[in-house]
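Incident log, structure service

09:12 report received: a user says their structure output differs between two submissions of the same chain.
09:20 pulled the input from the user's history:
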Amino acid sequence: MIDPTTVKQLALEEARRRAETSDWAAAYRSAQPRDPVMVDDLDDVERSYFIVDFRTAEVPTGRMIFRATTGALGQIAGIAGSQVSLPPFLTRAEVLAVLDGREVPVDGQVKRTITIDAGAVRIREHLGWQPCDQSHSPLQPFYLVDVPGEPDPIYVRIDGTVFPELTTTSAGA
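09:34 re-ran on a clean worker, output below:
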């Protein structure tokens, strides 16, 4: 497993290179990276990765994925032209704020709705991702949130959208 500090350095070096090209300048020229976030591939932990969110004046402008085992650059995304921002990449604190007092349907033995108490839930250390109806891109992973009394986590995509489960019913997922 590569160290997050090394991943951040790799991301900075890649951003500097990209900032010199017209295709990526808007995304990376003035952007600063947040700390890398570990994402477990929910289908195969050997494919886990780090995602680095870049910000320009607190606005998300770029993202990079690095393999957790080697540090190799994977996918990259960034704003272009008139695009102002990438979708949000919420922090743990922002996820708790999104969840607090929210009603979420859950599928247990009986389908029902629960109200989330942000003070009682636990956000797992690593984010998670798998191809599914709720996210076709590893650039859009999920916070896995354990709720007391519930056997399965709820999923909060990094843009703040909440899902009681991940499904794979549509084509291509």
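09:41 both user submissions now match this output. Likely a transient worker issue. Closing.
09:42 reviewer note: The first helix runs from residue 4 to 19. The helical segments are 4-19, 25-28, 92-99.
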